[in-house]
Fold this protein.
Amino acid sequence: MSLFFRRKKQSDAVTVPQHIAIIMDGNGRWAKRRGLPRTAGHSAGASTFKTIARYCNKIGVKYLTVYAFSTENWKRPKAEVDGIMNILRDYLLDTDSFKGENIRLHFIGDTSVLSDELKDLIAKSEQDSADATGLWVNIALNYGGRDEILHAVRAIARDACDGKVNIDSLTEQDISDAMFTAGMPDPDLIIRPGGEHRISNYLIWQSAYAEYWFTDRLWPDFKTDDIDAAIESYSHRDRRFGNAK
Ligand code: FPP
């Protein structure tokens, strides 16, 4: 039995975050250590993603946002970029992996530049899973936090020029509403495997009060026990949102 369910049984307080975001790092190193191409690491990472999404659904997490491809990842060799896009395509074709799991899929990022096939699959997966009542999964694809803010600023500026918005009465909520994550709660917990301690342009507006949890474990080796450990640590955090103790 996982630590999470053991703790729950003992009625020991465990606070399950409403929204977990993950930077799925370490796939390349995982593959290299095995003498495999980097794409094999991303395939293994996709398999970890499915296990972790299923587990988050089971323990009552409401939103899971994963970083699949950043606006900077286009700089990688074409074979690796194509490999990641093919892995995503295969995932979206295997509709049981989300429909059968009562998982709602949503993509964040600028997907307009993707292939027509991928754009169609994304639209179909979002439509087909729209009635799911379980976990809401956001896949960040061609996503960058600064790029997202730029999109929001452009949209708001356009509305201001059209006289639909009064600039002086703009609120933080208006900006949140212009983000790809409009209508969703901000992430409570951001998990980064792979040993690096940085945010890498991920959810930079939404993470203002997020808690972080890091591990050296590479993403393909990441297990449900690591989610338990992250939630355990999160449960002991004193989130004050700027208030006094
Ligand atoms: C970062 O590790 C990982 C990526 C840039 C790609 C992540 C994509 C997947 C796991 C596939 C997603 C698929 C689905 C279905 C959501 P890295 O390559 O930078 O690792 P390294 O730091 O060890 O080189």
About this structure: Residues 19 and 185 are 7 Å apart (CA to CA). DSSP finds nine helices and six strands in the chain. The two ends are 36 Å apart (CA to CA). The first helix runs from residue 3 to 9.
